Amino acid sequence: MTEKITNGDYVKNGNSLAEVQYIEELLQNAALSLQALRGSFYPDKNYGSLLGFSTEKSEARAVCYARQALSGFDGIYIKSAKIIDNVYAFTLTVNGQERQVSIKA
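and the corresponding structure tokens:
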């Protein structure tokens, strides 16, 4: 288990930090990778996505960029993307379970 992060901040549970289970940890890490601009993380120039660089917001392009960003993640596959009210809503499969991750467009 690892600490829960919401909107880039740790979540407290009383006097300690809230923790998440394995699949929620993978979803949390996927969301962080999708939000980060590709090339802006110095230790790994391939970390992040190109979603923030795209001037054309299309669902097909979002799927391509998300798959590129999460290609190094084991057990995660992007199935689809929807753009709803300036938010990317990704449907993905995590170790055989269908889940959703949303980030700002």
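(Above: one complete record from the training split.) The helical segments are 22-35, 59-69.
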